[in-house]
Amino acid sequence: MSHGSGGRASAQLIEELFLRHLDNDLLRRGDDSAQFGVPAGRMVMSTDCHVISPLFFPGGDIGALAVHGTLNDVAMSGATPLYLAAGFILEEGFPLADLERIVAGMAAAATAAGVPVVTGDTKVVEKGKGDGVFITTTGIGMVPPGVEIAGDRARPGDAILVSGTIGDHGVAIMSSRENLEFDTTITSDSAALHTLVAQVLGAAPDIHCLRDPTRGGLATTLNELARQSRVGMRIRESGIPVRGAVKSACELLGLDPLYVANEGKLVCICPAPQAAAALAAMRAHPLGGEAAVIGEVVEDPHHFVQMETTFGGQRIVDWLAGEQLPRIC
Amino acid sequence: MRGERIRIRGTVQGVGFRPHVWRLARSAGITGDICNDNEGVLINAWGDSQALEEFVEEIETRKPPLAVIESVERQPQPNDIDAPGNFSILDSGAGAPLTAVAADAASCHQCLAEARNPRNRRAGYPFTNCTHCGPRYSIIRAIPYDRANTSMAPFAMCTNCLAEYYEPEDRRFHAQPNACPDCGPQLWLEDVDGNAVGELRNADALARAAALIASGHIVAVKGMGGVHLAVDACNAQAVDTLRERKRRYRKPLALMARDIAEVRRYAYLDWTEAKALHSPAAPIVILRRRDAHDDLAPGIAPGQDQLGFMLPYTPLHLELMRHLRGPIVLTSGNLSEEPQCTDNTDARERLAGIADYLLLHDRDIVNRVDDSVVRVTAGHLRTLRRARGFAPGQLALPPGFEGADGVLATGADLKNTFCLLKDGYAILSPHMGDLEDAPTQVDYRRAIALHRQLYAMEPQLLAADMHPDYHSSHYARELAASADLPCAEIQHHHAHIAAVLGEHGLPRDSAPVLGIALDGLGYGDDGGIWGGEFLLADYAQSQRIGRFRPVPMLGGNLAMREPWRCALAHLWSVDDWESLAGRHAALECIAFLREKPLDTLRQVAAKGINSPPSSSAGRLFDAAAALLGLHREEQAYEGEAAMALEAMALRAVDGVEQAYPFELREAQALVEIDWSTVWPALLEDLAAQVPGETIAARFHTTVATAVAELAQRLMLQHQLKTVALSGGVLQNSLLASQLQARLAAQGHRVLMPEQIPCNDGGIALGQALVAWAQQG
Ligand SMILES: [Fe+3]
Ligand SMILES: [Mg+2]
Ligand SMILES: [Zn+2]
Ligand SMILES: [Zn+2]
């Protein structure tokens, strides 16, 4: 891809490429904006920028990830996502074939999720001013009436659920980026969670919080929620689902899976009496087969997230300001 | 006739100071009064010049056992005040308290004698105490230190006790915890279901508890600062059961013996050590074991050549031990890593799965205080854990820090203590423990709040470790942000060294010293992981001028738990590792490492995945221990491998003077000790079947030689005269004494930690001093 004299030609090429893959009525119309009607209720909007290395990894690529990330942010309010917008920043010289793969990945993810990309933009920056490709996606959706989900609604006594195994995405990305060989290939869990959310909401309509534990992992998400809701949390190490391969990779690398990123999991906090129904609904969904109740919300002026370890201790699972750094003197 | 106002500062409240002065005044014919106030004790005294001089001298020389006099200031009385006719004790004045809350103290010999005397009204009474001994800090809820503000409040004194309390001639004059069997706390025994055993009280309950221990049961014993677990130390099965239930699999267990003679049966004991055992702090003293094949259970201190002993420090323990024929294990009542239980309900809940019986009492333990631990190295008493008997303790700060005030230093994360600076004194908290443990951190925050209240201290400046993710640093930053205060972030090893300077009273404006920190690890100025450091340091500044050559810490924290990772990282620092490994393929340690996924680990190291380069001295010892097969796969607690290596080295008989080759190398703006030449030589020794003991000893010699050599070079280069050592690795006595000897032989003034732990228990004091000094 070039810039300058050939700019017009390549811009056209790119436009066609997008249209070919992401084709839908609104996008094809070619207006500066997409116009659509919406049902009554509260509208939700979320945006996310995606930078990742490598661009292609076991279980996905940056295109699919950009769709999933934003759809999930929308879905964590309990909303049904309706439309997506995508902005691309490409570095001059980025292989067109790679771009095509990424856009195809994005299209496949959007189609599978049933949410079209209805508007977008592309800019090319000089070589050295970007890192291959950056993608920003924006999503909008509608919250059905009666659904009240927010980060400050966790209450003492609530149950804490997680929709499946944790750490898959982060370990998959790291091993593919750093060329680490493990016995089995670890695949990212990148997936759109809105149908899972809809199913769980059907079974447990009084859900208090939903959040996807992406960067910073489960530990960071729980701390955010504890602080927002001004409560404490107690989780049990033995109850947290971790895939065997992820566990052994983490054991070799000395990483704590609690802090490793996920892209297809959610944390759900609901009143204890609805926990069993929420769990059953998750497990009935293809993305929630390994869902589990991992602990409960408690009263705690310090807002600690603490974990009962397999040795019976109560470990504080704190926020990390930076990387996982050794702290034992 | 002359009048004076005499101001005395120090630990002078709650230790029988006023009645003592009252007695001296009466015998010297001095009139006037004495009262406690917010600065200590204030005496108004009248008498003739000669009598006044003698009176003041007597106060200073014949003070009560627990009193510590920091300063005596004398001023003439204003002329318009007339001398009163007698000498009286006034009630405590109001106002902000400033003087120290005294630490708990072991029973004095008079109280022990009373408790042992069958005709005394306190015969066998477990809570006998007086102004010279007994609980203080462990029972205080608020100041002033009056009975109403302690957990003795619910116990109204009987007429006999009250008479003692109001009689200035009595040892129990104003003894706040004063008690007797008629009016004081009661002790009973119950089973794990909460059923009282035989309605027994006090001495009878103790006798039964002793019988249960003797027959192999685990008995929880609520003492002064916490609940312990006791078993017969000679019953192997009981000790194993205790370890299993407590999930403390290998860490050595502390012992209590009935007297010095019993300690001597099991361990070598010199005069300093015996004195420490008998001191008012009555700490656990780490002693060299006499005979590995004595009758103690093998599970007491597996793999160690040392035993930790303490003596009974309350009449409760004395009475218990009186009925037993040998030493007992007396270890903290908790699951491993948790804080010790303090209250009855908590003990019943948390210890139900560990103890068979509980010996409880109805005096609340307000503040948990663990047993202190000391060890004598090269003739000096070194505190490894400052708690019961020492803390809270105040330390007068060196010249230049007179105005130091309003500083709260939150310490490090492991072996945590915190520190306040108040009016030129440092107030050192007792040992808190590992802040990653949730109950410990809750207790830590509570203890900080209590100390702020006890010392009427509103922090104006916070000091914390520079580590981005220490719990203690998070807490300091939170406190600072919520009160809009500055928070000074202090480099870990600078704090280690500053604590040594402070302890030894180096004035604030002293010339820089060479600070050598031999440590597990700490966060460095440059974001790296440090731990073998040579710092050009004073209180305010520190510059790294030398270090151990860094190697990757393979797997971060995991490298501490799994010493083979340290061995691997160090072997990879050897230039031609492949051919070295090939040459020694037959060695068991090499074969072991070959079983690991080396290709992946090589990538991990090369790319620095959770493997920061680290100059840690602790990990260097772990590497050597792993090569010698000591806890290679995993160590159960911090320092286990290094302690085993030291124990092995101490058993060496010959060839110990020979050091392995090492190199001192200029690297950037500093000098590095490169250890990579050590490993081929060490493997050569292994291949030649040199005894492991000799190899371990040579390794110690190597480290001591290299550190002393680099120290000498840096001292000359920077024209320094004083060297200060600290860091957790100095808990290794063999290394510490070798280093001290070598550095002293080079003609330097050598400062080592004594009262302040060299491990992270000493960090808080250093942080506070650095933060204050930097403030200008
Ligand atoms: Fe340290
Ligand atoms: Mg977002
Ligand atoms: Zn006494
Ligand atoms: Zn009484």
**Number of DSSP helices of chain A?**
9
Look at the structure and give the CATH class of the largest domain in chain A.
Answer: Alpha Beta
Taking the alpha carbons of the first and last residues of chain A, their distance comes to 52 Å
In the sheet with the most strands of chain A, the strands line up as 8-10-7-11-9-12-13
* Biggest pleated-sheet summary of chain A: 7 strands, mixed
GO molecular function (chain B): acylphosphatase activity; carboxyl- or carbamoyltransferase activity; double-stranded RNA binding; ligase activity; zinc ion binding
Family (chain B): Belongs to the carbamoyltransferase HypF family.
Keywords (chain B): Hydrolase, Ligase, Metal-binding, Transferase, Zinc, Zinc-finger
EC number (chain B): 6.2.-.-
Task: Describe, in plain words, how this protein is organized in 3D.
With 329 residues, chain A is of the alpha+beta class. Chain A has two domains: 137 residues, 60s Ribosomal Protein L30, Chain: A, CATH 3.30.1330; 158 residues, Phosphoribosyl-aminoimidazole Synthetase, Chain A, domain 2, CATH 3.90.650.10. Chain A contains nine helices and 13 strands. In chain A, helix 1 runs parallel beside helix 4 and helix 3 runs parallel beside helix 4. The N terminus of chain A is likely disordered. Chain B has 776 residues and is an alpha/beta fold. Chain B folds into four domains: 88 residues, Alpha-Beta Plaits (2-Layer Sandwich), CATH 3.30.70; 187 residues, DHBP synthase, CATH 3.90.870; 130 residues, Nucleotidyltransferase, domain 5 (2-Layer Sandwich); 216 residues, 2-Layer Sandwich (Nucleotidyltransferase, domain 5), CATH 3.30.420. Chain B contains 24 helices and 30 strands. The longest helix of chain B is centred in the last third of the chain and has 26 residues. In chain B, 57% of the residues are buried. The model of chain B has no long low-confidence stretch (mean pLDDT 93). The chains are: A alpha+beta (329), B alpha/beta (776). At the A-B interface, helix 8 and strand 13 of A face helix 11, strand 22, helix 14 and helix 18 of B.
